[in-house]
């Protein structure tokens, strides 16, 4: 029997039934994980009333979920490289479903923290990096498009789950609303797990964390840029409904329409930048997405009407979709050895996790400190996103110079 080290690694197929079924499966995983994350705004508003807590307290539930999703990436990425994808996937499926079903019986703040924040967050963490790593090994030329399609799963979930909440919550209550969501997660994760198959042989040797990667300035700058981007990203997802009620006077059901719009336009916002990334380079596209998203966030401060809010939500939902979907393809483009994709992606995911943990609570604290006004939080989020664009540009600059191109070259990076 040949060792994994002596095996010839075939180039990615960049298509075919097996590859596209992996994309579909990862799309479903993103629906169940990121779809719920992007839908937390509907729970943010409801929990503030149900639990009688300030916005920053409720934000910790959603922020913990995203934090753990990213934080354990260093561990799950390396374990995926080592051949442990299947146990990770099974464990993640179990935790996500247990957390969602358990949350349906919760009545106190700390119970929601444990069930929806920690248990679901850990389950999503066991699923996210491994599934993205497996997807990356099937594609090279079409990788950004593949990641865009998988990331659009968050749009699918972001449309399905808020719609369910809007229809079911007034009629059957929170308990059966969450149980219905849990059944959907269980069925789709089992289906997706059948088609998720690792393509590369295990890489049993190598450290859990490859610190040498941070000697590559393009990788380091990109990691810092991703931190800044995700420090800002979920502020709108968590607070767009609350803003529309507190500042514009919309009712709770009407405010949920904005969450649906925000997630709905994110579908093309994830796929189109991914397609363009395959043409001009994912780092180039990620730089543009963060720049435009930062400018758009500043424009939120000028919104004074319901129609203006809808217009802003459409624009922001589209451009922030690129920030979310192009992030992994830009990161993997900075890794030449495909067997290290899981490790190096997981390391940056762990760094990003601290941004997702603190971003929304910081914004909520700013809102509370300013007596319910959103301007300070909007400026914080916009500044963080523009700083992300600066660091991603720095990563591009380092890589293009190493390739022998100039600052303003049209290099595909």
UniProtKB/TrEMBL annotation:
Pfam families: MFS_1 (PF07690). It comes from the Eukaryota. It is a multi-pass membrane protein. InterPro entries: MFS, MFS_dom, MFS_trans_sf, Proton-linked_MCT. It is found in: Membrane. Coiled coil: none annotated. GO terms for cellular component: membrane. PROSITE patterns: MFS. Residues 18-402 form the Major facilitator superfamily (MFS) profile domain. Keywords: Glycoprotein, Membrane, Transmembrane, Transmembrane helix. The chain crosses the membrane at residues 21-46, 58-76, 88-105, 111-133, 145-164, 176-196, 217-241, 285-303, 309-327, 348-369, 375-395. One of its GO terms (molecular function) is transmembrane transporter activity. Belongs to the major facilitator superfamily. Monocarboxylate porter (TC 2.A.1.13) family. This is Major facilitator superfamily transporter. It comes from Thelonectria olida.
């Amino acid at each position: 029997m040949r060792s994994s080290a002596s095996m010839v690694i075939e180039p990615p197929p960049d298509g075919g039934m097996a590859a596209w079924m992996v994309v579909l499966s990862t799309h479903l995983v993103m629906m169940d994980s990121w779809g719920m994350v992007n839908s937390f705004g509907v729970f943010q508003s409801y929990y503030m009333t149900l639990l009688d807590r300030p916005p920053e307290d409720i934000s910790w539930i959603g922020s913990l979920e995203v934090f753990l999703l990213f934080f354990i990436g260093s561990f799950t990425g390396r374990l995926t490289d080592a051949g442990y994808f299947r146990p990770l996937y099974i464990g993640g499926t179990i935790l996500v479903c247990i957390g969602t079903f358990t949350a349906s019986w919760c009545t106190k703040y700390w119970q929601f923290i444990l069930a929806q924040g920690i248990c679901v967050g850990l389950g999503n963490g066991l699923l996210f990096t491994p599934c993205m790593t497996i997807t990356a090994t099937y594609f090279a030329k079409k990788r950004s498009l593949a990641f865009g399609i998988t990331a659009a799963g968050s749009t699918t979930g972001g449309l399905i789950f808020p719609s369910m909440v809007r229809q079911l919550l007034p009629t059957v209550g929170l308990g059966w609303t969450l149980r219905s969501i849990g059944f959907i997660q269980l069925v789709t994760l089992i289906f997706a797990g059948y088609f998720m198959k690792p393509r590369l042989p295990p890489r049993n040797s190598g450290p859990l964390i490859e610190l040498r990667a941070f000697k590559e300035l393009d990788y380091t700058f990109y990691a810092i840029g991703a931190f800044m981007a995700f420090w800002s990203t979920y502020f709108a997802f968590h607070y767009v409904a609350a803003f529309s009620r507190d500042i514009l006077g919309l009712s709770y059901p009407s405010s949920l329409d904005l969450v649906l719009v925000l997630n709905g336009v994110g579908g093309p916002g994830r796929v189109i930048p991914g397609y363009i990334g395959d043409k001009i380079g994912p780092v180039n596209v990620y730089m543009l997405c963060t720049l435009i998203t930062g400018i758009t966030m500043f424009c939120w401060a000028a919104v004074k009407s319901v129609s203006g809010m809808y217009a802003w939500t459409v624009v922001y939902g589209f451009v922030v979709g690129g920030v979310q979907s192009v992030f992994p393809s830009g990161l993997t483009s900075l890794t030449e050895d495909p067997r290290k994709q899981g490790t190096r992606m997981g390391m940056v995911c762990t760094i990003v996790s601290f941004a997702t943990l603190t971003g929304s609570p910081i914004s909520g604290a700013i809102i509370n400190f300013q007596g319910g006004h959103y301007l300070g939080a909007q400026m914080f989020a916009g500044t963080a996103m523009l700083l992300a664009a600066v660091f991603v540009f720095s990563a591009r600059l380092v890589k293009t110079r190493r390739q022998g191109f100039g600052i303003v070259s049209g290099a595909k990076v």
